[in-house]
Specification:
Blueprint lengths: L7 E4 L5 E4 L4 E2 L5 E2 L5 E4 L14 H11 L1
């Protein structure tokens, strides 16, 4: 496996899971999900409107929580 096709998965505190490299996303039934790119941010907070991808909603939720 070349360095450019190596898959790297990185988590960010209170943020998404970043997947970079050669990978295939699948839904719960095993059907492929077209990511359209070689790097994607996957939602961990469950609030994204474009699941399984992150749309940044976690940042808004964190701001609202901090304001309380």
């Amino acid at each position: 496996m070349s360095e450019s096709s190596k898959t790297v998965i990185r988590t960010y505190p209170d943020g998404p899971i970043l997947v970079r490299g050669d990978f295939q996303l699948e839904d719960e039934d095993g059907n492929p999900i077209d990511a359209h790119r070689s790097t994607v941010a996957l939602c961990r907070c469950g609030k994204s409107t474009i699941k399984p991808f992150c749309d940044g909603t976690h940042a808004i939720a964190a701001q609202a929580k901090a304001a309380k």
